[in-house]
Amino acid sequence: MTYLPRTHRLADLTWPEIDELRPHAPVAIVPLGATEQHGLGMAQRTDTARAEAVADMVARRMSPQVVVTPTIPVGMSEHHMAFPGTLTLSPVTLQQIVVELVTSLHRHGWRRIFVLTGHGGNNAAVDVAVSRLRAEFTDTHIAWSGVTPVVSDLVKQNSDSPVRGHSCEIETSQALYVDPELVLPDRLVRGSATLDDLDPAGRLARSHPGIQFPQGYDALSRTGNLGDPRLATAELGALLVDAVVDRVCDFLTGLIGLPDRSPAPPPAHIALETS
Amino acid sequence: MTYLPRTHRLADLTWPEIDELRPHAPVAIVPLGATEQHGLGMAQRTDTARAEAVADMVARRMSPQVVVTPTIPVGMSEHHMAFPGTLTLSPVTLQQIVVELVTSLHRHGWRRIFVLTGHGGNNAAVDVAVSRLRAEFTDTHIAWSGVTPVVSDLVKQNSDSPVRGHSCEIETSQALYVDPELVLPDRLVRGSATLDDLDPAGRLARSHPGIQFPQGYDALSRTGNLGDPRLATAELGALLVDAVVDRVCDFLTGLIGLPDRSPAPPPAHIALETS
Amino acid sequence: MTYLPRTHRLADLTWPEIDELRPHAPVAIVPLGATEQHGLGMAQRTDTARAEAVADMVARRMSPQVVVTPTIPVGMSEHHMAFPGTLTLSPVTLQQIVVELVTSLHRHGWRRIFVLTGHGGNNAAVDVAVSRLRAEFTDTHIAWSGVTPVVSDLVKQNSDSPVRGHSCEIETSQALYVDPELVLPDRLVRGSATLDDLDPAGRLARSHPGIQFPQGYDALSRTGNLGDPRLATAELGALLVDAVVDRVCDFLTGLIGLPDRSPAPPPAHIALETS
Amino acid sequence: MTYLPRTHRLADLTWPEIDELRPHAPVAIVPLGATEQHGLGMAQRTDTARAEAVADMVARRMSPQVVVTPTIPVGMSEHHMAFPGTLTLSPVTLQQIVVELVTSLHRHGWRRIFVLTGHGGNNAAVDVAVSRLRAEFTDTHIAWSGVTPVVSDLVKQNSDSPVRGHSCEIETSQALYVDPELVLPDRLVRGSATLDDLDPAGRLARSHPGIQFPQGYDALSRTGNLGDPRLATAELGALLVDAVVDRVCDFLTGLIGLPDRSPAPPPAHIALETS
Amino acid sequence: MTYLPRTHRLADLTWPEIDELRPHAPVAIVPLGATEQHGLGMAQRTDTARAEAVADMVARRMSPQVVVTPTIPVGMSEHHMAFPGTLTLSPVTLQQIVVELVTSLHRHGWRRIFVLTGHGGNNAAVDVAVSRLRAEFTDTHIAWSGVTPVVSDLVKQNSDSPVRGHSCEIETSQALYVDPELVLPDRLVRGSATLDDLDPAGRLARSHPGIQFPQGYDALSRTGNLGDPRLATAELGALLVDAVVDRVCDFLTGLIGLPDRSPAPPPAHIALETS
Amino acid sequence: MTYLPRTHRLADLTWPEIDELRPHAPVAIVPLGATEQHGLGMAQRTDTARAEAVADMVARRMSPQVVVTPTIPVGMSEHHMAFPGTLTLSPVTLQQIVVELVTSLHRHGWRRIFVLTGHGGNNAAVDVAVSRLRAEFTDTHIAWSGVTPVVSDLVKQNSDSPVRGHSCEIETSQALYVDPELVLPDRLVRGSATLDDLDPAGRLARSHPGIQFPQGYDALSRTGNLGDPRLATAELGALLVDAVVDRVCDFLTGLIGLPDRSPAPPPAHIALETS
Prior knowledge:
41% helix
């Protein structure tokens, strides 16, 4: 395939370019970010930057098969609002944004769509949106993921902090790799990294797997971060992010290979055959 | 403590009894179920029954510290609608139900609330609802869980099916333990239990951990179930459900022991101290 | 007709059983309840129990022609929230529940649907929901009622209390018949049973037929009930409930006998013919 | 009381006049109408006109104690949409209008509010709105009624049609009294006036008191009206409307005489005293 | 064309009359008003009256080509709520009213619709509603305007007040022309008519064209009006309103002359031809 | 004032930096963009880029008095959806985004907020949002503008096209100045630049000032643009954009100089003094 678009970003293209690209690009990625505190030494746009970087790397690797919409730079960050500067959308509004962006893509003919959120706080809203979209667009394959959860096996192998997640060494490493300007290395401090660093509610929340007891980050950490970002390295970030890109590309290749989605025939009377 | 209420179920009590019980019962559980197909041999109310049974067992064990609201018998089951008889609520309506039930409890003075869903399809809506409630009621501890995810370690030790989850041996065992009338043992059939049993989209969905690619159950399984429920036993159900009850009781005991929730003081100017 | 389903309750059946039952069962009943105070001597689930009992009795009598969805155990009970333990949904959420349950039934092929509310506080929300559903599903017959209003003639013949309605001898009699465990007979007390028992607003509300001046029950009655439930008997309950069942069965038989609903042809130009 | 405002209609006054009138006028009436077909010989604005006329007559009789907002000239008329020209609002929008008008009045200090609907199709939406408003404004007395239901006893004494209601002799008589221009007497025709005039669904709907089985008016009547409006007289209209005015004035006088509404004290521990 | 309807107002007609008129009347006008303070000497219904008057004059001039719905007598008037008696709808509710009225008209066959608002505060809600309607009804031409903005050139020629707009000489002149009862001439006072009459925020708002800095009218003017209504004359009102009518008629004549609206063919591949 | 923040962009800062900056930065700007077709030779992100550039230039000029939130990169672009690649939000969702971003800023202490939209299609939604926010946050000054409307006088002086607006020489000049990569100069073509270039509906829409008759851009222009962008120059762009920046800075300086906003005292009884 010798055709190469000027870029995979829908926002950077003209409409005739998109018109030409469309038949070559079966997949559209919708990246979601956040503007929320990331501790003492990392910029508020970290989640936006990580989602956008992964989307761009995937699209470049698979060019011209993937287009990317602009990254939504705010998300569901209520649990960070005690820190100055965090911006938050309600979950209903975030759902609606995802639904309407995907609906726009669907109207232009896309039938394989991937929502990629750099911020775990967006998960529930995305999940609900995808559920609604699957029911409405029965001809469309739609999938979603976060960034870090795609490599949770590698995370376990590369971090020893009993408590980690937000603005820890794992996330900070990714930031150092995708955009070093996100990080002020000499401001990084160890956050709440062990159960003992947490207040009683935080300890309770972290010691019962399978039970969700969400806490505001002001309760979890005086500095707004978990783990120990001083241990972060760009090398670890590369290892993690490149693996995310590999795996998402692998998934999208599978997605492209699927037959078009169509409603299954009604399963009635199967019972009689099987019993 | 010698006071014992007639029952822990709010629906079975009179208002003067609830008035008397209230100071003794700091925790309220809100159970959520579903009415959805559970394969050829299990009743549609299975998720409702499991959530209600766990809530009742927890409340009896901790009596009089826990009250239980009526179980909502329908949930988010869009992905089962291709099978005759499944009922489904939209995610927005389910969110709203949880928000309004918890708001009612809050108006009557409860400040420690646990939402327990027997149906995984409800998770995202519950997550969003809890997030909204945390932001609105800053004086209330609120947590939630499913049933099976609380014992995912035990599930791994007791099931070999590479593909399982809905109406598999794990869920059917629970049903046999909490209410044997849920199961028609001679109708149980092996469902989609290995990747090879799935269609290409189902295989893709199940082979990329961390990536969510939700599928209608009509695409996943001709019979509507996964795994092999013929392997289910009431003994395994007892092992799993009793462990869920143990762990939820342990969590709730911790929850009761927490100080009252109150908004944290603003963290401003911490930076200066730490850098 | 010799075919008999295991039960008429959708929640208790498997999907193949529902698939088999569906062509024999043209009518679906959606029962609605409430969790609200019922005075000093009756359980909060009284309305749920009455709606469910009537639905079950109707379905058994007409078997296999009627299926029943799970009873929604909470309703619109804002006017009882001053008493400990009452749970309430907003009218918009309750509307939405009815709309979505009926929509689910419609997707599975039901075209004759009956919503039965055990709680009068749900009426307006049900009325609105039914109105929306009629407009949307022009191929579906949809009707609704309460329990007691179906036998208002018999109520007048069997009660002398000038003020009655909630948790009075009429409702308590029904409870004693459908489920004696709902009632704690030695706790029953006379409530506000005459205009003199009411406060001025309550008196005003009850003395202008046709004008609605809704009052919180805390204003209407110190004990939360009207009338005199000490006069209740299971015999009166049987007389009332059996008559409700007779009349609903009679209506549903008529409903089954109707031709399928279809949009009427446009009435344009009728004027010319008639004038 | 010698003060007399120029008019009781808020829309016709200037703000300084309203400022002066406010302390003399404890009651505000919110009239609601409809724009919907009224058979072959009556204008679509009939319900608007009847509500407005009653509100004006009440306010003049009780001057200066009552102010009146502008009549909302459209309502919930989905069941008439098969006839050319009917306009309809959704029930949610109509609820919202009532809520927002009453909220505006509340912000200006009114604490006794009466919603008067000339159109029965608005009832459920008004009921829901009033329920929401009672819960939100705990310092406000709020009541509502239709026009004809206030004199249902007189209706029974003055009409023999077994089937009546919409655009029948009762409604047409009112129209002839409040505004003769509403009626084109030589176009009036007998509508569906007996059960035999109805189609099977209409007959079923009208023969089970207490069961609601709403029908589109296109199904109920080829001409869009019930009863026999040729029997209407302005004298009967005067008898009915004057009685409505009497009774509403009587109610509002009672409403003005009530103490200010305030939330009742919590009823907790009453049980102990009474049992 | 010799056919003449009894009136152009849908609310005043019967359905058979509308049925007959419909093919002769391709255009429907939806007038919107407000109930809001208009200074010391003008009635709250001024915007309603001006919109209705223009709609009626247009419809009479173009008879039988134009029908008119009832004027909605309340609008978005939050910025006037500091004055006693103003009523306001939320913008979402107002949008919904416009959407639902136009939808009703569309269901009856109208495909050329004009929304005419007498109140500038309604503009944004109308704009949003029209945008939604255009997207939904792709076969319908829909346009909207205010009253005064249609003759902004004439306004400039006939007013010297540096600050004007609400209840100024321009609006008062229109009121004197369309309905002299709207005005109490001896109560009229000069309002805020120059930048010096405004508070600092008002001055800032009025001195940066293109920047919107909305102010409550209580901040803009102690009396609730701008400009100097004592300069108003019925002659100026006639000049302005007659010009509005001329121009709207001219536009509607153009609208009737347009071909039916239909979705344009997709513009794809135009690029290749043009580049 | 010698304090200088690292940057004015909230997304690029850490929370302690924002905490430090906050008391120095009384104004927050919320930029809004769009992803929509801009003719054959300009990128879809043009509106996003122009809004962001102006916000950044203003903030740098006034540093440290102004902070800037991330630009929302999609807007209300329904009227461009016939061209491949345009993304659109519903007006309700866009309103909600603005409301929630401003609410977040308000929670962090900002009381002077400026919403700047690069896309005219967003205007109505922004207007509604600002109206809601003014009513809710009575202690906050909130203003908004587009980019080009701030210099409409200069536009008139520098363009001769009778029809212009979208992707014309004015907008393209701005793009050349703020980010030359937005433009593919050799793809630029003359769009619909005179009334004769428009279809009949477009001509009608453009020939009645004050009447809004919105048209899809597919109807207005085969290429999706108006005017003649081949006439664009970076010099003209500099003239226009620099003037926008000057004027917005001037306005914001005025805004900072205003006293804190507070609700005005009620104006009651002013009438007596003045008449």
